[in-house]
Design brief:
With 218 residues, this protein is mainly α. It has one domain: Serine Threonine Protein Phosphatase 5, Tetratricopeptide repeat, CATH 1.25.40.10. Helix content is 69%, strand content 0%. The protein is built from twelve helices and no strands. The longest helix is centred in the middle third of the chain and has 23 residues.
Length: 218
């Protein structure tokens, strides 16, 4: 009996070591080796209104991800560049869309921008009530983001970066069904996606979910 227990213990130890030492990429996560997005270059192209080249580059990242899940981070990194845009550049998003309305990248990029505006409008308060100015302003920007996300997903249903934004919006506006549906739809298309799972888990933190009372009584 002791020998059986000993062998079982060794087996457990061996299994744990395998799990620890196994490369992250084997578990569906992108590795740093695959991350190759230069955000400053993307912003340079955007600010100089080279929209045709920008569309091609962003679509290239998405296509690579559709072929290989290890390219997932590049899509998120690329569109995250537009979270840093100054409000003075908002007109460039409109121009980009007016010139290339048949493409999805400008809608996704502007949605990222609006999501950033929404978070900034909300401010750093742990909880913001719905009747407060901050909440209403946040809600307005998120509505604009959702409009762009809807258009982008009609053009390409495989955009995890859009579903991730919907998860954020659903969390901070207390639309739990919207959040869960976005996660479900994304994982149907990319079952190995880890950024979607990560985004969803992040929204379970009270600060990101906007409700400490809910966590206190759960």
């Amino acid at each position: 009996m002791n020998r059986i227990k000993s062998r079982f213990s060794y087996s457990i130890v061996f299994l744990v070591l395998v799990i620890i030492l196994l490369p992250i990429s084997s578990w569906g996560q992108s590795t740093s080796y695959h991350r190759k997005v230069d955000k400053s270059t993307l912003l340079f192209i955007f600010q100089h209104q080279l929209f045709k080249s920008l569309n091609a580059k962003l679509e290239e990242y998405q296509s690579a991800y559709d072929q290989d899940y290890l390219e997932e981070d590049n899509v998120f990194d690329a569109f995250d560049a537009f979270s840093k845009i100054d409000t003075a550049c908002e007109s460039l998003f409109h121009k980009w869309i007016n010139e290339y309305s048949e493409f999805y990248p400008p809608y996704v990029a502007r949605a990222k921008y609006y999501c950033t505006c929404a978070r900034e409008a909300r401010g750093s308060k742990p909880v913001v009530d719905k009747d407060q100015k901050e909440y209403k302003e946040m809600e307005r920007y998120y509505a604009l983001a959702l409009n762009d996300i809807t258009v982008a997903l009609k053009k390409n249903i495989r955009l995890d970066v859009c579903y991730a934004m919907v998860v954020e919006i659903g969390s901070l506006t207390a639309h739990e069904e919207l959040k869960r549906r976005a996660l479900t739809n994304a994982l149907k298309i990319h079952p190995y996606a880890y950024r979607m799972r990560l985004k969803y888990l992040q929204t379970l933190v009270p600060r990101l979910g906007g409700s400490y009372k809910k966590w206190k009584h759960s």
